[in-house]
Batch of 2 targets.
Target 1
Amino acid sequence: MTERGTALVTGGSRGIGAAAAVALAADGWDVGVSYRTRVDEAEQVVAACEKLGRRAVAVQAEVSEAAEIERLFEAVTAELGPIRAVVNNAGVVSPAGRVADYDVARLERVFRINTIGAFLVAGAAVRRMSTERGGQGGVIINVSSRGAVLGSANEYVDYASSKAAVDTLTIGLANEVAKEGIRVLGIRPGLIETEIHEEGRLDRIGTTPPLGRPGTADEVAALIAFLASDRSSYMTGSMVDVAGGR
Ligand SMILES: NC(=O)c1ccc[n+]([C@@H]2O[C@H](COP(=O)([O-])OP(=O)(O)OC[C@H]3O[C@@H](n4cnc5c(N)ncnc54)[C@H](OP(=O)(O)O)[C@@H]3O)[C@@H](O)[C@H]2O)c1
């Protein structure tokens, strides 16, 4: 099997991040996963990666705090060696609601975690990977959402907007670091079966994508593993939808 180096997946304890960690391990990466509170699930992901013959570690870190992101990168590097791929995945949605009813606390939470968190993780990755800073290069995969394009009316326009900012981060950062050995890519999942959805949401709208069903975390993870590998070596600044035609 190809030896690929160390990958870090934020929000790797469950859902898309957990599936991505296992897909990356299957593709030859040693994997660091971060989690916020669900240590048991994060350790299960570590065990699944180890079962595939790779090294893995789980680290608790709040993605919206710069000091915690630094500690996360240091811990994973110390345990597994230099990080060559980062999946910027941790994220939250807001409760369903209309723009007219949003308050500042709600807006600050979703932008702090989804947008500021993504910037902090991307910055920490560039500081370590950039060939201009002594790094070996690498790839950053930002997990956005089809909501960034569709707008998520009557549900969470704030969430959609926080992900649109992540798309712009992908484009701008890709241009900024292309000559420093770093590729930056975005993915936009559609309706994927994970716990992120409010109770009943997938039952209500899960069959509305043109493919007639929600996607699985494994279907997103397969794309992430492809983008992290040198099989996508001529791609940077691209956004790839994995949304069943939605
Ligand atoms: N599922 C979908 O339909 C869908 C569609 C489009 C985009 N996405 C995006 O895909 C990404 C993963 O979504 P998912 O559906 O897999 O979500 P999920 O099942 O709810 O998992 C979220 C993950 O992020 C971690 N996390 C949440 N807030 C955090 C914080 N403040 N600091 C650190 N870690 C935090 C969680 O850790 P704990 O387990 O410890 O809580 C968990 O590992 C998100 O960015 C989401 O916006 C999902």
Target 2
Amino acid sequence: MLSPSFHRWLRCALLGSLALLGGAALGAGDTLPPSVVVLQYHFVATDTPASTSVTPGQFAAHLEAIEASRATLLSLPEALDALRAGRTLPETALAITFDDAYESIAEAAHPLLHARGWPYTIFVNPEPIDGRHGGFLSWDQLRRLTAEGATIGNHGLRHDYMVRGESQGLPDPAAPAYETYLETQVLEAQRRIDGELGPQPKLFAYPYGEFAPPLQAWLKTQGYAAFGQHSGPLWAGSDPQALPRFPASGIYGDLTSLRPKLTMKALAATIESPTSMILPREVDRPTLRFTLRFPEAHRGPVQCYLSGQGAIPTTREGSRVDASAPAPLPLGRSRFNCTAQGPGGRWHWLSQPLLRLP
Ligand SMILES: [Zn+2]
């Protein structure tokens, strides 16, 4: 575990840099800042694990729903650059991502995306690709996909639980050896990706969507934007090392679940608590506390939900929102999701991922 002093240092470092992508703050009455919805896929196949798969038919239906939503497709680098620069974006802007570099991307997804001229990103682990493990894309296939519009991001050399430390045989994140571990997992992976495909942008996706302040701070020093898999759109105030994506596979692949997310806006807020996805061992009923950045845009209630517990008591005083878990969380991953309606009745969304370790 992290030492208390390291925790304090990290907290100061993170708060001091208050990691904004860079958009200017708006005054009351101005238009709300742009949002980008990022979808996360794994397999597009019928014979792969249901929780991380959509069938080719479902994927085609998703693309038709995206067309019907009138979304403009952006590559991740385009979306992040526009948010950083404070540029205006289409009212509905969307990016598509795949994790793990499975073969079905080339077979079932790429032809449909390429036919529409839509960009997308694949986050890859070089080790199984180099080891020619079955079911993964090869570097030759990835070269063809990049030539036809794909961006390749970094998902770590292997697919480690990168923040679970000694329980997974990894260095304690507070120990000096952790930096050496990250250099291997991230920088060596990037050398393999760039060496095979030419320089790719510094994009990272956390394996299993798990991250913690030491990893986030290190990625920040290395200039990476980093994505989890907690839901919600991006906006200029998103923490660049805790960027959300909407999972779109398994139970989330259903069109009734997906459609409202395509036009979702970010619930622009600064999260004060918790300060890490990993909860202290003694905390099993966490509290989410955040400050709305544009409180005047949300005249109605803000409602928060918690995995397995449904709607939870949520209090709002002005711009300040508090929501606490009414019942203990199980071990493992869960998350707070909060929604509110903004101008024009459009829904806004914020998520905070949580991880309880044994
Ligand atoms: Zn993955």
